[in-house]
Amino acid sequence: MKVERIQYKCTLTPLTPIQIGNGNQIYPYDYVVKNGTYYRINLSEIIEKFPQNIKFKFIKLLENNNMIEIRSFIFENYKEEYGYIYKAPVEREFENKYLEKIKGANKKNDENSFIIEEFIGNVEAKYIPGSTIKGAIRSAFLFNEFDKKRDKYDFKKNLKYDKELNKKIEVTAKPFVLVDRYGKTLMGRNSKNEANKIEAKMLELTKLEPKFDPFKNFIVTDTQVTKENTVIKEISRLMPLGVNNKLSFGAEVLKSEYSDNEDVKLNFDIILKLIPSSLLKKDSLDKGIIKEDVYFEISDIAYALNKKAKKVLEKDLEFFKKNTKYREYEKISKELLEKLEKLEEKNEDRVEYKEALIRFGRGSGFNNTTFNLVNTNEEVYTRVVAGDCPVGWALITFEEV
Predict the structure, then answer these.
(1) Contact 390, 235 (CB under 8 A)
(2) What is the pTM of this model?
(3) What is the pLDDT of residue 389?
């Protein structure tokens, strides 16, 4: 039986900094920041290019194993002509802190600010995995099916003392869908079975069975690779007013429209394989897995992404307005919400819904990666930002081939 395929050419435009890590942390002896440029280096190759007298001094430092002196020595003696694996521009705030503390940090946590989270890709180029985009789309689709049915769950809470907040906070032990950077679905501890039941319900299945999951026939390719579109920024976690922010780390992030005034375009494909219902039912007849036919078109995906994005943005705005020192982040979130509302006005006919806001990547938020916004208690105490922007927002456009 023939399976119909519909292919869409898609374009992803980063609106705010996006960070998709590969799990690799780059330490300050594997990079140098000079004159607004980040140089990712191979230390052993650089040593070989040092003049003999400098090389001798450096070997002595290595014997003493003093990492602060080692990184300071590398910074002072490195020259661009010695070579590098790749380079990228650096946000001024990150470079200033780097220069201030390169010869030694005052606090233990300051050392962490020197760690840079590498963006997924290879030594020459970066990309966004299709599985990451697909995971965000699946999460939005399930969330909106959940919300459409107006189900509300009052999940059990545990109280945990938070030193930074100086109070007990509620830690929700609830089922949720959390998507990692590779698009893999992660489950909350001791909640896998209940989470599976909820996902099955949203997909109109009697039980969660990957073979009959409609997203199995939903293919998302990796984006094109990009060589010149990353920048180094400081990623921080914002706390409520009156609580000291926890500095995080540096990261390779995609340049973006709101943060860098850059119009970056990344292309990828979405392929929908439309499986005839008779084929599915024949295979599942004896198993009783499929309750109803479940099909979605690209307009359904765009609609789900925008509906979820609106709820996430509204909650972010509440946080930033409540904490008045975060005006710059409130401004960006408001602009994103206004962009989303214009998309909704432009696409009143859902059939023509071909643009959507999507959020993904590191720091995109608990509300964004879980079912938290359909929980009866949905307060989240922190937000993650890079430079002057909330992280993880992009615009996707879809065009049928």
Answers:
(1) no
(2) 0.83
(3) 93
